């Protein structure tokens, strides 16, 4: 339950019992919940019974939370192989909700929730929003896409639970979004960071200064974004931008969220999830603080328990106490997924690193796309980016700008690439998750 513990604005809406447990209490709670969850998975999901049997482990082998390392991983392909309902631990008629990924590559992955799961998800989203500084009574403009994507409905239910006034706009129709932001006086904006940037740009074109509107919090997530883009959004929208993380396979948005006190790492809600970081090569768990692939086990999901789900997201964890007083582990900014990582002449590069170089360079707009192509046997990268409307746009100026950007990328990231600085509007705008990389190989 959410409740106000003190009248101090910073402490407001803290769930002081759940969010400030000692590390010992967290580990004990996790072990208790894990035992129950693993047994449910083993008894009700044939996939888990077969996987545990193959690995020679039984749910009763788990004595402490750290024993999770003996259990098998779950992969996205396991969800596909069990399409549509094979990973469910309850009969279909007991489900309250189904969501699915868009499935651009092959079959979609389906995720299911009992109504109790939906209720817990709403609580965790409300907790995340409260941590982000959103308050009951705030008008919350929800521009995450509604539908099978978990962003829209996940944020919607969480905001209702928190007591916000929800404006369920979904993505797209950007001019109307600007008008509604202005007319309804929203205090919080929820969207992907790339769509927030699109909204900022369209508002400027309409002569609306969003920074002068009451909106003061941006709850941005669902895709990797750099600190440079965060500063750009803070400035252009007049908000404090807060990062929120989640994935449909383990719930949806609200698995982890930054607090607005430190905005330094996303609090992973450890009373409902167990977080590990593994070496993606050896698959061995890494010590706290080391970078690797995030693996998440659900502790309280009824309909679709997930055991050691390999997220493919590359990050690191810290259990240093946060300034806000919360004790849960923090997920340091997710740079990207291992499948987004590009290897250019032996250098590992994430799109978010390219973004960090581009955003804030003089005369450039923060819209970009990366093209990957073959140069002989090697992978090569080309970066398309735009000039600001008031920067010079003749061929000579664009060539000079391209040279300049190429130089910056080379000196900061260490890779040589082609750069094409385009006129304003040359890069497609995002209405949800931005397409950052086009693979022409
Ligand atoms: O993107 C859930 C979500 C909705 C999160 C709204 C936050 C806000 P999926 O569509 O299943 O679910 O995509 C999950 O998106 O594995 C990451 O690769 C990426 N992702 C999500 N949040 C972040 C973030 C939603 N804050 C996949 N930073 C994840 C970086 C993120 N990547």
Q: Any overview of this molecule?
A:
With 441 residues, the protein is an alpha/beta fold. It is built from 11 helices and 21 strands. The protein has 2 domains: 3-22 and 112-337, ANL, N-terminal domain (Rossmann fold, 3-Layer(aba) Sandwich); 342-439, ANL, C-terminal domain (GMP Synthetase, Chain A, domain 3). Strands 4-3-5-6-7-8-9-14-13 form a 9-stranded mixed β-sheet, with helices on both faces. A 4-stranded antiparallel β-sheet has the order 10-11-12-15. Strands 20-19-18-21 form a 4-stranded mixed β-sheet. Helix 5 (115-131) packs across helix 6 and helix 8 (193-205) packs parallel to helix 9 (227-237). The structure holds 5'-O-[hydroxy(phenylacetyl)phosphoryl]adenosine. 5'-O-[hydroxy(phenylacetyl)phosphoryl]adenosine is lined by residues 101, 144, 149-151, 221-224, 243-248, 252-253, 311, 313, 334, 337.
Question: Ends: how far apart?
Answer: 51 Å
CATH topology of the largest domain: Rossmann fold
Ligand species: 5'-O-[hydroxy(phenylacetyl)phosphoryl]adenosine
What is the number of domains? 2
CATH superfamily membership of the largest domain:
ANL, N-terminal domain
Strand fraction: 15-25%
CATH class of the largest domain: Alpha Beta
Largest sheet data:
9 strands, mixed
- From the alpha-carbon coordinates, what is the Rg to the nearest angstrom? 22 Å
Class by alpha and beta content:
alpha/beta
Averaging pLDDT over every residue, what do you get?
A: 94
The CATH architecture of the largest domain: 3-Layer(aba) Sandwich
Spatial order of the strands forming the largest sheet: 4-3-5-6-7-8-9-14-13
Give unreliable regions as ranges.
1-11
* Count of β-strands: 21
> Roughly what percent helix?
25-40%
- The multimeric state of the shown protein is single chain
Overall shape: globular
Task: Count the DSSP helices.
Answer: 11
